[in-house]
Amino acid sequence: MPSATVNDFFIALTADSSSKDNLERIYTGLSKFVEVFNGDKSIRLCLVNNIYPSSVKNDLIAQIVSDCKATRTFLEVIIEFNLLTSFIESREFFLKKLRKLLGKVKIEVVTIDVNHEEKLELIKSSLENIWGTNLELSFKEDPGILGGLVLQVEDKYFDGSLLGKVNELKKINLKGDFNV
Amino acid sequence: MSEEINIASQLKFASQHLFNLIFFIGVLYYFLKDTIVKFFSNRSLKISREIQEANTIIETSQASYNITSQKVNLIDSELTELRNSIDSVTSRKTGEIIENANSVAKKIKIDTQDIIKLESLKLQYQVENNILSKALEVAQDEISKEITEERDSDLISSFLSEVKQNAISNS
């Protein structure tokens, strides 16, 4: 008899939570879980390692995802079915699927300075103009890009930085031809 | 007259001795004839036997000599053949070795020329890359010095309008 997959539980989770608010809560809960999982090594080790009992893992999940029961139940079930590793390996896929259900677009913006409010507002308004107002925006500072910005819109990558333009010049040789 | 008496006495004396001699020879002949005949006959037989043995030995020796001579001739011809064969094999092998050495030398020469060409190209690219890297480093330094908030905002606006165009054309 074929066993259930993470995707089956995920479909059940999203089908039960039909309202947008519920889906938003689930997304927030799962995002928080993924963020904590990525950031804290001890939590990562505890959740992935089978020597820890389920009760310890469930307590940890309850602490991380305290405000969404459906997300908590989902995570507890996949731990019970020993599917946490599969979920972790495909976490970005499931989050993206939820964002699609919510009509949300995740955009990561890299600039040389994140303290310039006026510039950030300009970027935000331009991005809302392109992809709508339901955006999950995050700004990252990297002086190494020299100027301009780099966008990661879901799976798409847009490089409008000066470093990117300089790197393009590396493809040209001294005679001005493109290197093969 | 006395001379005649002397001659007669001398003749008498001579005839007596001649008789004695003939008698003596007769006696000798009578007693020694068989012994001497037998002795010479035996000796003749022995000599003829020895001659026969010598002939046999000579014949055997001749036969041995002939056989040995044939063998020597055979060995000599084989040696000559062997020498000729060694000479031809040696000259052939020497030719092959020289030919191989020439072809290997030619190949090595071509390979070396190719390697030299590739290495010089590689070095040329490395030098070009180093020059380009240095030029780009200088350009990066200049850009980081020259960039202002205003220019950065212009750059961002221009890029975002490009992205918008791209998004519109894709949708």
Describe what you observe in this structure.
The complex is a heterodimer of chains A (180) and B (171). Chain A is an alpha+beta fold. Chain A folds into two domains: 6-101; 104-169, no CATH class. Chain A is 57% helix and 14% strand. Chain A contains nine helices and four strands, in the order αααααααβαβββα. Chain A has a four-stranded mixed beta sheet. In chain A, α8 links the parallel β1 and β2 (135-141). In chain A, α1 runs antiparallel to α5 and α2 packs antiparallel against α7. The radius of gyration of chain A is 21 Å and the shape is elongated. Chain B has helices at residues 2-146, 149-170. Chain B has one domain (2-170). Chain B is built from two helices and no strands. With 171 residues, chain B is mostly helical. The model of chain B has no long low-confidence stretch (mean pLDDT 91). At the A-B interface, α8, β3 and α9 of A face α1 and α2 of B.
Describe the structure using short key phrases.
heterodimer; A: 180 residues; alpha+beta; 2 domains; 4-stranded mixed sheet; B: 171 residues; mainly alpha; 2 helices; rod-shaped
Task: Sum this structure up briefly.
The complex is a heterodimer of chains A (about 180) and B (about 170). Chain A is an alpha+beta fold and about 180 residues long.
Itemize the secondary structure elements and their pairings.
The complex is a heterodimer of chains A (180) and B (171).
Chain A: H1 6-16, H2 20-39, H3 41-48, H4 54-64, H5 69-80, H6 84-89, H7 91-102, E1 105-111, H8 117-131, E2 135-141, E3 148-153, E4 156-161, H9 162-169
Parallel strand pairs in A: 1-2
Antiparallel strand pairs in A: 1-3, 3-4
Helix pairs in contact in A: 1-5, 2-7, 4-5
Chain B: H1 2-146, H2 149-170
